[in-house]
């Protein structure tokens, strides 16, 4: 006769599975009896939760781009200024976050007139209600975009700017210059938004804004010591760490998959398409810049190729949701050639010293992408070239004009440029009392 205890033990093993099966059956029965309104509500709540998670992840990716910018700028400049570059890329976001919370978000996204918001969002009051579905996630997503606009300026002003002046400039950009123009393009009441201006993720709003302010800053500062000879001819000042700059570009390329697809503000099927156009433009920009530099100097220049990646990314940002894949390739490819020509033009014709090519990558290629998208839109979309031209021109006038005024004021009140001996020694020790590479400090004479 078979013992009963083994049978009881076997039966007990099936009890949890039986309970789970009963729960599932009761859940199915409940779902069958649930009114369609309740099912729709559950579906909406789930979609909202997914949207919040996706936009938060995208915001974190865009924040990581700060590290990319810091590495690109540090690699493209000299070792004696590495601490200064890192400090500026850290603190422009820190200072920018505080003033964005206090003033910037309200000016850009709250209700108002066509030119500026003024009803809510200041010091966080009512900021979570600007986009009720996303709440504070929308705030942090827009905050990291503001930080991107501010940090673009750092590269063009590298190796000769007073740290205090740069901090004040970063605060002014995130508090006033960026949010006021951003309101025109991205707020529901913005006058350019009402005209139908297309800038899905910020070729104009973020990148051209930062690029044109960078141009104003580089002009206000003047060139680095030794950049131009007595005859006015430009001299190359090589960066100290191209591998570091390359790592920065890879980080930026990765972060752009938050920058562009995250601008959907929702977790839907368009994310993959936007990632596709973003990636195609970056790859085309790299190839085009490589071949352009190869033809020009008979060597495939690494720094130009790296900037070609960024040029393609910046250019496609405005139309990444609306252009065809072939259009993304063309936009990115032309941007890759354009950035090589623009860097040469800014350096040798305008005689503006931009150590990392920020004006060309962000200002020029941002404008190119904002105009070019009109010719590569998917069926069903429409845009007038005149509206795009107007928006590009207004951004240049506002960002370059306001930036010039800001730097003029800083130059008079605080001082914009470090003394000659500090610039020769490098900004790391005089400005911060640190060395990035102890024991390997480089002293330069002119």
Can you walk me through this structure?
The chain has 446 residues and is an all-alpha fold. The chain is built from 15 helices and no strands. The chain has a single domain (44-432), classed as Ammonium transporter fold.
- Count of helices? 15
User: CA-to-CA gap between the ends?
Assistant: 104 Å
Give the strand content: under 5%
Overall residue-averaged pLDDT value: 92
Taking pLDDT < 50 over at least 5 consecutive residues as the criterion, the unreliable ranges are: 28-32
H/E element string?
HHHHHHHHHHHHHHH
Q: Give the oligomeric state of the chains in this entry, treating copies of one chain as homo and distinct chains as hetero.
A: single chain
Shape: globular
- In CATH, the topology is named Ammonium transporter fold
Radius of gyration: 26 Å
Total number of beta strands: 0
């Amino acid at each position: 006769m078979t013992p009963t205890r083994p049978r009881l033990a076997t039966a007990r093993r099936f009890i949890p599975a039986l309970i789970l099966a009963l729960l599932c059956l009761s859940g199915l029965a409940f779902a069958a009896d649930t009114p369609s309104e309740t099912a729709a509500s559950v579906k909406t709540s789930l979609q909202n939760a997914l949207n919040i998670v996706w936009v938060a992840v995208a915001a974190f990716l865009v924040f990581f781009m700060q590290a990319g910018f810091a590495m690109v700028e540090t690699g493209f400049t000299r070792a004696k200024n590495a601490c200064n570059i890192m400090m500026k890329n850290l603190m422009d976001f820190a200072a920018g976050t505080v003033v964005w919370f206090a003033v910037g978000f309200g000016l850009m996204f709250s209700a108002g007139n066509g030119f500026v918001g003024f009803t809510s969002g200041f010091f966080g009051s009512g900021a979570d209600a600007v986009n009720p579905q996303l709440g504070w996630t929308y705030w942090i997503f827009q905050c990291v975009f503001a930080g991107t606009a501010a940090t673009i300026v750092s590269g063009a002003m590298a190796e000769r700017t007073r740290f205090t002046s740069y901090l004040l400039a970063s605060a002014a950009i995130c508090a006033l210059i960026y949010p006021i123009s951003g309101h025109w393009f991205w707020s529901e009441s913005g006058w350019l938004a009402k005209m139908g201006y297309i800038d899905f993720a910020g070729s104009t709003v973020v990148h051209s804004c930062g690029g044109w302010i960078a141009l104003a800053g580089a002009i206000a500062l003047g060139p680095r010591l030794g950049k131009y000879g007595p005859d006015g001819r430009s001299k190359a000042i090589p960066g100290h760490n191209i591998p570091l700059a390359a790592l920065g570009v890879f980080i930026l390329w990765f972060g752009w998959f938050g920058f562009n697809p995250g601008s959907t503000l929702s977790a839907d099927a368009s994310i993959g398409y936007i990632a596709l156009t973003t990636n195609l433009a970056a790859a085309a920009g790299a190839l085009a810049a490589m071949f352009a530099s190869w033809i020009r100097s008979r060597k495939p220049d690494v720094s130009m190729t790296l900037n070609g990646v960024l040029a393609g990314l910046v250019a496609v940002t405005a139309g990444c949701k609306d252009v065809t894949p072939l259009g993304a390739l063309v936009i990115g490819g032309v941007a890759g050639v354009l950035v090589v020509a623009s860097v040469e033009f800014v350096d040798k014709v305008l005689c503006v010293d931009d150590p990392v090519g920020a004006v060309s990558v962000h200002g020029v290629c941002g404008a190119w992408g904002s105009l070019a998208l009109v010719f590569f839109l998917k069926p069903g979309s429409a845009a007038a070239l005149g509206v795009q031209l107007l928006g590009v021109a207004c951004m240049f006038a506002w960002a370059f004009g306001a930036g010039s005024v800001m730097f003029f004021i800083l130059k008079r009140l605080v001082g914009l440029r470090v003394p000659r001996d500090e610039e020769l020694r490098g900004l790391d020790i005089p400005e911060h009392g640190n060395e990035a590479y102890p024991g390997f400090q480089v002293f330069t004479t002119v």
